[in-house]
Specification:
By secondary structure, this protein is α+β, with helices and mostly antiparallel strands. The chain has 2 domains: 4-48, no CATH class; 59-143, Rossmann fold. The protein contains 4 helices and 7 strands, in the order βββααββαβαβ. The chain has helices at 42-48, 59-70, 91-107, 124-136, and strands spanning 4-9, 13-20, 26-34, 75-80, 86-90, 115-119, 139-143. β4 (75-80) and β5 form a beta hairpin. α2 (59-70) packs across α4 (124-136).
C-alpha cells in the first residue's frame, strides 16, 4: 500500500502519514502539527485580520473568464427547470454568452454605473445577463417577475 496523507482538523491541523503494516493494521506517525489556528485573543485577531481586496476586481473577468482560460470544459452551472429539463454550462459557455450579452447591452447604451432591472425568472439567461452587467460595471437590480 502506498503512503497516504490525511489532513484532520481538531482545534489544529494535523498531517498524518498512514503506513500499512498489514491489510487490517495501520499505525500513524504524526509529521506536522500546526496550532496557528487556535485563537489566543479575539480582539487581537480581529485587529490583525484583513482580507486583501484587489483595486480593480470584476467577477465576470476575474472568475468566469479566468476559469474559462484554465479549463475550457470545466462545468460551471447545471440548471434544472421545474419540469426537470436540464441544461449544463461550462465556464467557456458562460464567458462567450456573457460577452455576447454585454455587446447587446452596449448596443442599447448600457454603460458603467447604469442601473438595470433584469425581469426574468431564474433561467440561465438571467445568470448570463447578470455576468454581462457585472463585466460592464452596471448595477444589477434583480426583480422577480412573478
Amino acid at each position: 500500500m502506498e503512503n497516504l496523507y490525511v489532513l484532520k482538523k481538531r482545534g489544529s491541523i494535523v498531517k498524518e502519514k498512514i503506513i500499512s503494516k498489514s491489510k487490517n493494521t495501520y499505525f500513524n506517525e504524526i509529521l506536522m502539527a500546526d496550532s496557528r489556528n487556535n485563537l489566543s485573543s479575539y480582539p487581537e485577531e480581529y485587529a490583525r485580520f484583513s482580507i486583501p481586496v484587489p483595486e480593480h476586481y470584476n467577477f465576470g473577468f476575474d472568475v468566469i473568464d479566468e476559469w474559462a482560460k484554465k479549463d475550457r470544459i470545466k462545468l460551471a452551472m447545471i440548471w434544472v427547470s421545474q419540469k426537470g429539463e436540464e441544461k449544463k454550462y461550462t465556464f467557456q459557455d458562460l464567458k462567450n454568452q456573457s460577452n455576447q450579452a454585454a455587446n447587446i447591452l452596449l448596443k442599447y447604451g448600457i454603460n458603467k454605473g447604469d442601473r438595470v432591472l433584469i425581469m426574468l425568472p431564474r433561467i440561465p439567461e438571467w445568470w448570463i445577463f447578470s455576468i454581462a452587467l457585472i463585466k460592464l460595471g452596471a448595477v444589477i437590480c434583480p426583480v422577480r417577475p412573478y
